[in-house]
Structures are given as structure tokens and as C-alpha cells.
Known about the structure:
Layout: H1 2-13, H2 35-40, E1 48-54, H3 61-71, E2 77-83, H4 86-92, H5 100-108, E3 115-118, H6 126-131, E4 136-140, H7 154-158, E5 162-165, H8 173-182, H9 184-193, H10 205-264, H11 269-285, H12 322-339
Function: Catalyzes the key rate-limiting step in the CDP-choline pathway for phosphatidylcholine biosynthesis.
Pathway: Phospholipid metabolism; phosphatidylcholine biosynthesis; phosphatidylcholine from phosphocholine: step 1/2; Lipid metabolism
Family: Belongs to the cytidylyltransferase family.
Amino acid sequence: LNEQIHLKCLTLTAPAPFADETNCQCQAPHEKLTIAQARLGTPADRPVRVYADGIFDLFHSGHARALMQAKTLFPNSYLLVGVCSDDLTHKFKGFTVMNEAERYEALRHCRYVDEVIRDAPWTLTPEFLEKHKIDFVAHDDIPYSSAGSDDVYKHIKEAGMFVPTQRTEGISTSDIITRIVRDYDVYARRNLQRGYTAKELNVSFINEKRYRFQNQVDKMKEKVKNVEERSKEFVNRVEEKSHDLIQKWEEKSREFIGNFLELFGPDGAWKQMFQERSSRMLQALSPKQSPVSSPTRSRSPSRSPSPTFSWLPLKTSPPSSPKAASASISSMSEGDEDEK
């Protein structure tokens, strides 16, 4: 029990052990279990030993979800994962992207795996099941035809040791390889740009030059795109500024026109001021009129009003005789005396 607990703790802090490097053996009597018994639960020192196998090339989330289902089939389970070698895989299925050492190591770092069995058999034999004390085999329920058999898990199903899991749609190793093959040029150019040589990529000299030229074209397109985006941003900012300026100009124009009309309009302050100044100027330029009636000055009763004289030119002729001349002089002297 302590060893089992220790191994479970190790799976959370260290890679899962290989089967041929561990002494983990089920110490309790290994009696055959039914699926119903396993689902009810087993003693802590008797976990249900579940086996799942596969190629696990390009380990992905579909693989991890299948192993999660296998691990959680029963309340107390111990998951063993068998990984087939390169020789078996290339013989019965085809070439792999990852070699067997890489595939083994990928499984060791999956959190649901308790133990990894290297060089697992393509078809499960009773001897293999007994050696690893396997209670149940977990796999998807689709018949797996290979190695001359319609379903390599047929005998496991007939023995009542098969527990089905569900495939994850939309993700598989074949799907990933198909994406790479479909977009081969894209990934070849990508790796050339990252420093891989044409020889490492198995790319011809002509294709290498074509890919590098296409990379330069893509860079130029990206620069043009960035310039266009920056230009659009600049134009948008200018439009916003222009809109604000036009709005402010309209407000100032309305304010200016209102002030102008208020000052120079028909009833404006300028007109009133002009009229006031005009009236003042007229008053300053025009002489004051004399009063119509002036007070009468009192006269002395002893004096009579001065006679009015009309100064008209008189034609004088020389006196005709000395007697006439003396008479004229005497008359003028009398007139002076009367005036006094």
C-alpha cells in the first residue's frame, strides 16, 4: 500500500516509470474482477489495473483525453500504457514522425499514466496479460483491423476484459500530418526563414530560391500592410481633428456674426453711439439762436429816442452866391443844436 501511494505521488512530481525499471507488482491476490465489481471499488492495495496501448505519434490532446478516460473508468485504478516500437509500427501501420524513444518519453509525462510499457505487442496475448496482471483493456470501440485480423481486440472483447473509451473528433495524428502535407510550402518557407538549410528540409535548389523569394515578397506585403494601417489611423485622426476644427469654427463664426449684428445691426449699439456723436457734432457746429423777445430797456423821460438817419449820398453843387452859402451854413448849425 505504501509503495502504491508513493508511486502515485511520484506521478505528480516525476515522469511515470517504465515497466521494466520498476518492481511494482500487485501484492494482493490477483483475482479476476468483473466490470461491475471494479466500478463498485476495490481495496486500496488492490487497484484495478487498466491497460491502454497505441502508437502515440505526435502526442496530442486526443491521446491525452483517451488516457484520462481510461484512468477514470474505475474509482481505484492503475493505468499501464503500452507503446509499440518503431519496427512493429513501420511494419503494420507505416512510418512515424517521432521515433520510439521520443514517443516513450512523451507518454511518461502525461499526468494520467502510472506506468509505461516499452515495445508493447501489436496483438495482446494471454502471456502478456498475465505478466502485467492486466484486469481490463481500454480502447475506442471502433474495430481495429490490422495484422490480418478484422479486429485485434476481438478476443479481449469476448473475454469480457474490454472497456470502451470515446474518440476525440477533429484531432488525430493523421489529421496533423495532413495539415502539414497540405501546407507543405508554408512550413518549408517557415523553416528556411528560421535557419534550416535546404538539405535538412530535402528541398531542391530551385525551390529553395523560390521559397526565399516568396518570403521576401511576404515581408514586403507585411510592410505595405503596416503602412496602410498606420495611414488609415493617421487619416482617421486627421478627420477627427478636422471635424473638431470645423465645429469650433462654426461656433466661433456664429458668435462673431452675432456680435457683429449686435454692434452694427439696425438696432445696434454702434448706430446709437453714431447718432449721439452726430447730434453732439451738430450742436457744436451750429450757433445758438437769439431769443425771440428781449427785455425792454427803460429810457430816460428827459431824452427822446435818437432819430434814425439814412446815410444817402447827396449831390452837392457849389453855392450859386455867397449869400446862399452863408444861409446853408447857418441851417446846418441850427440842425446840430437841435440834435444836442
